[in-house]
Amino acid sequence: MISVDEYRAAVTALLGTAAPISLPLADCAGLVLAEDVRAGVSLPPFDNSAMDGYAVFSADVAGASPEHPVELPVTEDIPAGRTDIPELTRGTAHRIMTGAPVPHGADSVVMVEHTDGGKEKVRVERAAEPGAHLRHTGEDVREGTVALSAGTVLGPAQLGLASAVGRERLPVRRPLRVLVVSTGSELVVPPRTLRQGQIYESNSVMLATAIRGLGCQAEVAISIDDVASFRWEIEPRLGEFDLVVTSGGVSAGAYEVVKDALTGLGVDFTKVAMQPGGPQGSGRWNGVPVVSLPGNPVSVLVSYEVFLRPALLSALGHTDVDRRRVRARLTERLSSPRDRRQFRRGYYWQADGEVTGEVGPRGGPGSHLLAAFTQANCLIVLPEEVTEAPEGSEVDVLLL
Ligand SMILES: Nc1nc2c(c(=O)[nH]1)N[C@H]1C(S)=C(S)[C@@H](COP(=O)(O)OP(=O)(O)OC[C@H]3O[C@@H](n4cnc5c(N)ncnc54)[C@H](O)[C@@H]3O)O[C@H]1N2
Ligand code: MOO
């Protein structure tokens, strides 16, 4: 039997780190930048106005007030997008809009609200400090400096900045292409009619959803419990994928299709000291990483959380791969098998003003209780040495 931490490290090492690839910004959401990105332009690229109003030389409107307005001729109109930059002559004003380039010779902008809004000539009713309402070249980012550093997770702000400094594509860690294989002769896909002894398939939906949620690609295949047909269906497709994740067929029965098909081909099957999710397999099949999870749906999701999610995040270049861990008081007594780390589905909440939250189990320990998982927002972690956790005791909780 291998420990949870050892097995998690083995799966993370198996997946390694994805190579960099250049992708259009629209395909980069949630991915991790593989190299530093330097700004192709300064931000702002030119001195520009922060307000709609009039560009002036501040000394020309010194002392202006509603009682003693200063009148200036308006000699230019500068909307945003005007590409020539005219010069402001002392004693005149240019009408200017937010984001438009500030003319040479102007050192401030008077908001339109502090004028009569005139087009030919303008009455300025308030003095302007030098520099008022000006946004300076490079105030946000200087051309040539690192705007986004390698390892940055690309969300809306980061992708917006990439576009603002002139990038159309970015070097990112390539999202893994994952083949999710559900095994079991009892499996039927909705809306086909169930016969006695059959069940509707759910593992591939869970895994593909979770994997896609990280920014990876997932395709799904379903195999019956027959070694020859499992190999025949999956082996020719291995070259299309960076990872194969199977579920089912790994424990001790007479028809363990995944274990029987892949033992001796580079995939090792073992027991991990946890519950659920004890029976696991991992290795390479024709060089392609394979992670084989047990078939029970709750075991699948818990195995995903404990092993696959951190390994996939790490492969994608993330450094923060762990769920947030908090301490919480148990609302009821829980028991756990000796020498196994137990992960129970739970609901965590923290009352206003309380330092420590509370957590209650959702459903029992059974790894077939998928409906209870849908009521959970966390996993309660009962360590290997714990067999009893009394009501009111503090436990570790992983927030999902
Ligand atoms: N004698 C032993 N029996 C079992 C052991 C053991 O150590 N000794 N371990 C148990 C544990 S723990 C688990 S977990 C399961 C794992 O078994 P398998 O990985 O071989 O999974 P299956 O037998 O194929 O399926 C288990 C269960 O899950 C259902 N299932 C499978 N795939 C799907 C799917 N895609 N969608 C929905 N449900 C699925 C399947 O019908 C079974 O009910 O073994 C225990 N037995
Ligand atoms: O390990 Mo099994 O996953 O307990 O149900």
TrEMBL record:
Q: Report the EC code(s) recorded for this entry.
A: 2.10.1.1
What the entry lists under Pfam families is as follows:
MoCF_biosynth (PF00994), MoeA_C (PF03454), MoeA_N (PF03453)
Report the InterPro entries cross-referenced here: MoaB/Mog-like_dom_sf (IPR036425), MoaB/Mog_dom (IPR001453), MoeA-like (IPR038987), MoeA_C_domain_IV (IPR005111), MoeA_C_domain_IV_sf (IPR036688), MoeA_linker/N (IPR005110), MoeA_linker/N_sf (IPR036135)
What keywords are assigned to this protein? Magnesium, Metal-binding, Molybdenum, Molybdenum cofactor biosynthesis, Transferase
Cofactor(s) it depends on? Mg(2+)
Q: What pathway is this protein a component of?
A: Cofactor biosynthesis; molybdopterin biosynthesis
Q: Where is the MoaB/Mog domain?
A: 179-314
The membrane-spanning stretches of this chain are none
Q: Which reaction equation describes what this protein catalyses?
A: adenylyl-molybdopterin + molybdate = Mo-molybdopterin + AMP + H(+)
Q: Transferase: is it a keyword of this entry?
A: yes
Which superkingdom is the protein from? Bacteria
| Family that this chain belongs to | Belongs to the MoeA family.
Protein function: Catalyzes the insertion of molybdate into adenylated molybdopterin with the concomitant release of AMP.
Q: From the Swiss-Prot or TrEMBL record, give the protein name.
A: Molybdopterin molybdenumtransferase
Gene encoding this polypeptide? Answer: glp
